[in-house]
Amino acid sequence: MECNPAIQAISILLLWLPVARLCPDGQDGVPGSDGGWNADPDHNLTDEGPCDVDIWDKSLTYSQFIQQYAYSKPVVLRGFSDNTKFQLLCSRDNLLRDYGEKLVRLSTANTYSYRKVDVPFQEFVEHLLRPQSLDTLGSDTLYFFGDNNFTEWRSLFEHYQPPRYSLPNTSGAYSFGVAGAGTGVPFHWHGPGYSEVIYGRKRWFLYPPEKEPHFHPNHTTLSWVRDTYPSLPPEERPIEVTIRPGEVLYFPDHWWHATLNLDTSVFISTFLG
User: Fold this and answer.
1) Residues β-bridged to residue 116
2) pLDDT in tens, 108-118
3) Over pLDDT 90: what percentage of the chain?
4) Handedness of CA 112, 118, 122, 127 (dihedral sign)
5) Which residues contact 170 (CB under 8 A, 6 or more apart)?
6) In this predicted structure, which of 62-66, 79-83, 114-118, 255-259 has the lowest mean pLDDT?
7) pTM assigned to the model
8) Per the record's keyword annotation, is Signal included, yes or no (predicted)?
């Protein structure tokens, strides 16, 4: 049986197209359990913003990743690895049981993260983990992300399955975090990497290296979204996407980015260097 050339061409084209997000209300792909982290859903943020980033399932090949995204633009990978076990280990009860007495280093949630404070993880979760106030500066907001003691957290990280596509001549370093609704880090840049949400949702705002955004380094992302974002002309709008459990965002080298946790979120990044 001969294949219709038109149908054959369409079939080939579909192999190269990223998958689309299926539900405009953002409910597809979200596990029923929040791991015990979403104790106060009234503080969750509902606006996920537009989706300007390609989303691929496992049909994306390594060659396509390198050619189309690795050095040029962000991409979301969906279902590339199974972190069901890691997600279970990251529930609120399990993390408090296994790591509650471990010291974690908190940094101020501003562009340069000047101040750092060490507290037991249980104290952070029970007393400091809260929704972001619009009236609080990023320089006065303590954020748990990045400064992980790999010796003490190794037993958790060894269960994480990182994204399978890396860049030539690089290796990955993990940064793990837990943060309240409305928190996030303001615009900054660094090398390439991946960000995966284990629980919650994280909204991303990205600009290419040559397009530095306008922001105050000591203000929070939440205040930027309230005060600056609405008045941006179309040509100055960021590239945006909101990621959920099971989705991983890849961002290239030197891309400006800011994040906003829409819920109390648990997340891990893999920095490639």
Assistant:
1) 107
2) 755 555 678 89
3) 67
4) negative
5) 192, 272, 273
6) 114-118
7) 0.86
8) yes
pLDDT-derived band of residue 19, with 50, 70 and 90 as boundaries? low
DSSP-assigned letters across all residues of the chain: -PPPHHHHHHHHHHHTSPBPP--TTS-TT--S--TT--S-GGG---------S-EE-TT--HHHHIIIIITT--EEEESSS--HHHHHHTSHHHHHHHHTTSEEEEEESSTT---EEEEEHHHIIIII--PPPTTS-GGG-EEEES---HHHHHHHHTT----S---TT--EEEEEEEE-TT----SB--S-EEEEEEES-EEEEEE-TT-PPP--TTS-HHHHHHHTGGG--GGGPPEEEEE-TTEEEEE-TT-EEEEEESSSEEEEEEEE-
Neighbouring C-beta atoms of residue 166, cutoff 10 Å: 17
Span 64-70, mean pLDDT?
98
